[in-house]
Design a protein that fits this description.
six-stranded parallel β-sheet, alpha/beta, six-stranded antiparallel β-sheet, globular, 7 helices, 12 strands
């Protein structure tokens, strides 16, 4: 049976979260399937000279025509993609925009609407508002204080984290050490790595930061049809306490560690508790996205 909180709308569940005061008109300009349960959406910002300002990790209140309550969807693109456009800029024809990765969810009216057939919704105009406090760098922490970044994602929990990693890559501000633990299911009976959300994007980032970053990929159903490279570990199991401990690095160097965790409720609660119980870690060093 659903709890009272599970029955609340996105806006009700996140009422205490910070929100930008402005509303932005956007057009649904592109839809790309990732697998049988996730699709990528591009929202072109109609006021190109204004753009949309946000921090990597934030989400959108998404107001859809005909629906009484807004949906909440995390931005997966980077702030640069939504900046006001200069007419002579490179790729000016495609920017500014916001990207979302939306999971099929028939019981969630906004998500169900965004999963309607593409020819029914392409070109539709929506209104969005930026919100959320799960951002990088951690609020009140200068970026130079982050010596080791530990990123832990499960399923579509990768959404805010890919925005953060992509932003660090684009701005050339990757911390000295980055460990990314990514747990995911391979869709259906497929073993195709192309169907793992943002895996290609992650591997592209990895190639540019081989001296700083390492990815550990955990699949919990089918064996993945791929050969990992030297910067990547591939496991057909769930990650455990020892995996977390190794990602945190030596105890004597954990003062500069910050952890970002995002995934299903049970996984998030368990991982956050495990990390906070590790020697050398204090509560403020572990951040998580919780909408429940």
């Amino acid at each position: 049976m659903a709890t009272v909180r599970e029955k609340l709308s996105h806006e009700e569940r996140t009422a205490a979260e910070p929100r930008d005061g402005g509303l932005h008109a956007v057009s649904l300009s592109r839809i790309d399937p990732v697998n049988e349960s996730v699709r990528l959406l591009r929202l072109s910002i109609l006021d190109r000279r204004r753009g949309v300002k946000f921090l990597p990790g934030q989400w959108l209140d998404t107001f859809i025509p005909g629906l009484p309550k807004a949906g909440g969807f995390t931005i997966t693109s980077i702030p640069r993609d939504a900046e006001p456009i200069v007419e002579d800029a490179e790729d000016a024809s495609s920017r500014p925009y916001l990207e979302l990765a939306v999971q099929r969810s028939p019981k969630n009216p906004p998500a169900a609407w965004l999963w309607r057939p593409s020819d029914e919704i392409l070109g539709a105009r929506l209104v969005v508002r930026v919100g959320g406090s799960f951002v990088y760098p951690p609020l009140g922490v200068p970026p130079q204080f982050v010596k080791r970044l530990v990123v832990i994602a499960a399923g579509v929990g990768i959404n805010p984290l890919i925005s953060i990693l992509s932003h660090l890559d684009y701005t050339q501000s990757m911390p000295q050490h980055v460990r990314f633990l990514y747990s995911t299911k391979v869709g259906g009976a497929s073993s195709n790595p192309a169907e793992i959300l943002f895996l290609d994007r992650l591997r592209s980032i990895l190639k540019r930061h081989l001296d700083r970053m390492r990815l550990s990929l955990y699949t919990t159903d089918h064996k993945l049809d791929m050969i990992p490279d030297s910067s990547m570990d591939l496991h057909q199991r769930r990650f455990g306490q020892e995996d977390l401990r190794q990602a945190l690095g030596p105890v004597q160097e954990r003062k500069g560690v910050f952890c970002y965790v995002c995934g299903p409720q049970r996984m998030t609660d368990e991982v956050v508790a495990r990390i906070r119980n590790e020697e050398g870690i204090v509560s403020d060093q572990v951040l998580c996205e919780k909408w429940w």
